[in-house]
Amino acid sequence: MTGCAPAVVEKPLAPTLGGVEPEKQMEFWHQLAEQPVTSNDDAFHALLIFIDGQDAAADYAARVAALKEKGLLPASFNQPATQAADRGTLSVALAKTLKLRGGIVYSIFGPSPRYATKELEHAEIYPPSSPNQIFSGSEFLAVMSRAEEYQLSKSTGGKPGDANYVPPELELRQGIQQPVKPVPAPSTQPATEPAGAATKAL
To answer: Is the Cβ–Cβ distance between 108 and 30 less than 8 Å?
Structure first.
């Protein structure tokens, strides 16, 4: 009896929107928010932008090589670009990038997919997850936004979660919306006639 085949994304975005130009990066985030599944190629492109501010890799093979050189992917990693990114693989890369301390088991055995996933849940970067789960585009963007929020809170000495978190898919589609001001209820008091109005009527 064989297991289910991994989900596949036929056309990842990174090959066409993987440039270092800000316009391409913005369009990449816009389109990724609409994707039903996040591919390895798109996840690794996003991860390199998160770490380095840009992804200078020319293609998927170069992205994988760059992440292996940083120690964020195991040397044995050989999944194709079109395969759906799993939460366990990304959790190890994020846990190392964010320098999560973790508990005793995590500290002893290092950030395995299972324990890194749990630590990201504890840090409120991941929702409740299993290492084998995959991401939709909006789920992946939400995780990356929370990772950035966590990183910023550490650098400023604040508590993770202090920042006003807005899901990135909402930021991209609508911008950060201002609170709607309540419309005053119409007055129930009878209108007051201007001074002298009654005498003029007479």
So the answer is: no
Q: What are 105's two structure tokens? A: 């088991």
In the structure encoding, which two tokens stand for residue 72, read together? 């964020």
What is the rounded distance in angstroms from the CA atom of residue 115 to the CA atom of residue 36? 26
What is the Cα gyration radius of the chain? 25
- What are the structure tokens assigned to 173, written together? 């589609």
**pTM: predicted TM-score of the whole model, two decimal places:** 0.75
- Reading the chain (202 residues) residue by residue, the pLDDT tens digits are 455 778 999 999 999 998 888 888 899 999 999 999 999 999 999 999 999 999 999 999 999 999 999 999 999 999 999 999 999 999 999 999 998 876 676 666 677 899 899 989 999 999 999 999 999 999 999 999 999 999 988 777 655 544 444 444 444 444 434 444 444 444 555 555 555 544 444 4
Nearest-angstrom CA–CA distance, 108 and 85: 26
Q: How far apart are CA 175 and CA 106, in angstroms?
A: 38
